[in-house]
Design brief:
pyruvate-formate lyase- activating enzyme, Arc Repressor Mutant, subunit A, three-stranded antiparallel sheet
């Protein structure tokens, strides 16, 4: 990787958690009623669904974080929020012709383990009361090492949870101090070992490269801990520095951030280290051991990606509950009210989900979405079904990427090279017909 190539492609680009990306949704018709029609149409095609629950509370602000969260130490907020989520769930189940079959549940945040184990049990039992569980399923939650107790792990395991994602970020105390996140290596170890003992089938670590003060020595020490603890999966994310959007990131100086080639070196050091430990690269930013279900799905070309991340299951309907959460019916997206106060008010006073914006996908949107998913899941995309879409202008744009060694072009098909995997977001950007460059520069983080 040379410096000229890095300068050319290390520009702000979306992470493509959806297409179109959320800032570019067409919100000219935001309609909860029309959204529910799309939910019902998707359910008629397949009653298996994924369910995401956003639990926004945290006791302290981690300054690197880009998630929607609410900082409080008042745990009296738990029961009212659980009740609101269950009421929102009923708004959906009352409008479905039969019980949904849940293939996935993911508790995200915020900090799900902010909630007491008994309140998480109340939530999960309430969700399952009006649904069935698929015979093969994934039930997972995000765990903060400092707040996840043995009782949390036991309670959720007894409810059928089989995956846990531990927010490690970095093992170094000084790096963590700068981003105002406090946990110890021993706490990470304890949660990991207890989860294994209790029978959790897959343990994921979230790690971030590009954090303030982070150096190659930190990546090396992180790899040493990974070698000892051997989680089944690793999500190795690039730190997204967007202080214009996330004001808390102004808590530290940009001079403390590794950028450009320094940041890319951190990623390449981490990637090569993980591969030496036996991990295989899966899609964008993810690694898994060969025995993990995510790896098997990738090998079988069954890997899928939704708003919850990479998954071995492809459910068209993903219902998201809670403040700011985003749902997907495959032909439409809907986002809930972002502010906690307004979310709770609308749940109390209205009889439809508290949607603040929707996007109804055009036929072109759906075609491009499939191509982008193929790129970020399988490192290839093809146009064999609709050759007219492989236009001259698209071929020209791809040819520039091929000249730089990021892709290989075949008749009506492109494949991402090893070099191109570091710039997969840039490759997806070529397909993005809705992206406005001004929006791109103002809102999105850099590719590296």
């Amino acid at each position: 990787m040379n410096l000229d190539l890095l300068r050319k492609y290390d520009v702000p680009v979306p992470r493509y958690t959806s297409y179109p990306t959320v800032p570019l949704w067409d919100t000219s018709e935001t309609s909860a009623g029309r959204w529910m029609q799309h939910v019902q149409m998707s359910f008629k095609r397949n009653k298996e669904i994924s369910l995401y629950i956003h639990l926004p509370y945290c006791e302290a602000l981690c300054t690197y974080c880009g998630c929607n969260k609410h900082i409080t130490k008042n745990h009296l907020v738990e029961i009212p929020y659980v009740n609101a989520v269950l009421k929102e769930w009923k708004m959906y189940t009352d409008r479905l012709p039969e019980k949904p079959v849940i293939r996935e549940i993911h508790l995200g945040g915020g900090t799900p383990t902010f909630f007491a184990p008994e309140n998480l049990e109340l939530l999960v039992r309430g969700l399952l009361k009006d649904a069935e569980l698929a015979p093969v399923r994934s039930l997972s939650f995000e765990a903060h090492p400092a707040s996840t107790t043995t009782e949390h792990l036991k309670t959720l395991r007894q409810l059928g949870f089989n995956r846990i994602s531990i927010g490690v970020q970095d093992f170094d105390a000084e790096v963590m101090r700068v981003i105002n996140r406090f946990q110890t290596v021993e706490e990470v170890r304890k949660v990991t070992e207890e989860a294994r003992t209790l029978g959790y089938e897959s343990i994921n670590y979230d790690l971030i490269y590009g954090l303030p003060l982070q150096t190659p020595a930190h990546i090396e020490r992180n790899l040493e801990q990974i070698a000892q603890l051997k989680p089944d999966r690793i999500a190795f994310y690039s730190y997204a520095h967007i202080p214009e959007v996330k004001k808390a990131q102004r808590a530290y100086s940009e001079k403390d951030l590794p950028t450009g080639m320094d940041k890319l070196n951190l990623y390449q050091l981490g990637k090569s280290g993980l591969e030496k430990l036996g991990y295989k690269e899966i899609g964008m930013d993810h690694f898994a051991l060969p025995g993990d279900e995510l790896y098997r799905a990738a090998k079988q070309q069954k890997l899928h990606r939704n708003f919850m991340g990479y998954t071995p299951f492809h459910t068209e309907l993903c219902i998201a509950l809670g403040a700011s959460s985003i749902s997907d019916s495959w032909t439409a997206y809907a986002q809930n009210e972002k502010t906690l106060k307004e979310y709770l008010r609308r749940i109390r006073e209205e009889d439809l989900p508290p949607i603040i914006k929707t996007h109804f996908l055009t036929e072109e949107d759906q075609t491009i979405r499939r191509q982008i998913l193929d790129l970020i899941c399988h490192y290839q995309a093809h146009w064999l079904d609709r050759r007219a879409d492989f236009t001259f202008s698209l071929q020209q744009a791809f040819s520039k990427l091929e000249q730089d060694g990021l892709i290989k072009i075949f008749p009506y098909q492109v494949k991402v090279t090893a070099r191109g995997k570091s710039f997969i977001r840039n490759i997806c950007r070529v397909l993005d017909k809705r992206m406005d460059r001004d929006v791109q520069e103002r809102i999105f983080s850099k590719a590296v």
